[in-house]
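INTERNAL AUDIT FORM
Audit reference: QA-55
Scope: verify that the stored structure record matches its stored sequence.
Auditor: D.O.
Record contents follow.
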Amino acid sequence: MDAQGNAGSSKDHLVITSDPEHPANHICTLCRNFYGLGWVTGTGGGISIKKGAHIFIAPSGVQKELIQPLDIFVMEHATRNYLRKPPILKPSACTPLFLAAFDRGAGSCIHTHSQWAVLVTLLVEKDALAAGKSVADSCFEIEQIEQIKGIPKGRGRTGMLGYFDRLVVPIIENTAHEEDLTQSLEAAMEQYPDTYAVLVRRHGVYVWGDSVSKAKTQAESLDYIFRLAVEMRRLDLPWTP
C-alpha cells in the first residue's frame, strides 16, 4: 500500500527497490528535505528525475513530506506515455514544465514555492514599476556574491559562474493553472539559453540541472541568493554595483 492507502499494480517493480539513489526513493527523500526548508508547503511544489528513458514524477495534491515510492508516476520520455500510474492519484501539475527541461537535456527539475523566490519577484516588480519599465521584461540580477559560484555558466559551457559574473534569472508571469505556465517557461528558456532557473512572479521558481545532485545544488544556491537579496534590500544595499 502507498501513503494514500492505494493498492499496488503490476508496474510496481519500476519504483520498488532498496537503492536509496533510485529516483523513486530519491524523490521521497528530497521532498521530505524540501518540506523542512519550507519549499513544498501545503502540497505545493514538486520534483521530477529522469533516469535513462524513464521520467519519475511526484504526484499532485499530496503532502510532499509523506510521499512513498508507490506514489510515484513513471513516464516514457520519448512517447510521453505513462508506464505506471498510481490509482486515484494525479501526476504533478508541473509535469509539462518538467518535460520542457528534460527536452533540453536536464536530468532533474525542481519546483519550489520558496518565500524568498516569491519576494524577489515582488521586489523586481516594484523596481520596474518605479523606473517606468515593463514588468514583463524584468529579470532578477545580482553579482559579487560568493554563492553565485554554485551556478553553472550555461548549457554547453564549461565551469561555473564566478564572483564577478552577473547572475541573471528570468521572471515569467503567474497563471491560474500550473500547466498554463509551459509556453512562457519555454520562451524564457529560449531567450536565456544559459539559465538553469526561471522565477514565476508571486509563485516560486523552477530549477533544473544535468543531474539530480546538480539540480539540488543549484536550487539550494539560488534560494540562499534570493534570501540574501531580500535582506540586502531591507538594508538598502544594491544587488549590482
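Auditor finding: record pair retrieved intact. The first strand starts at residue 46 and ends at 51.
Action required: none
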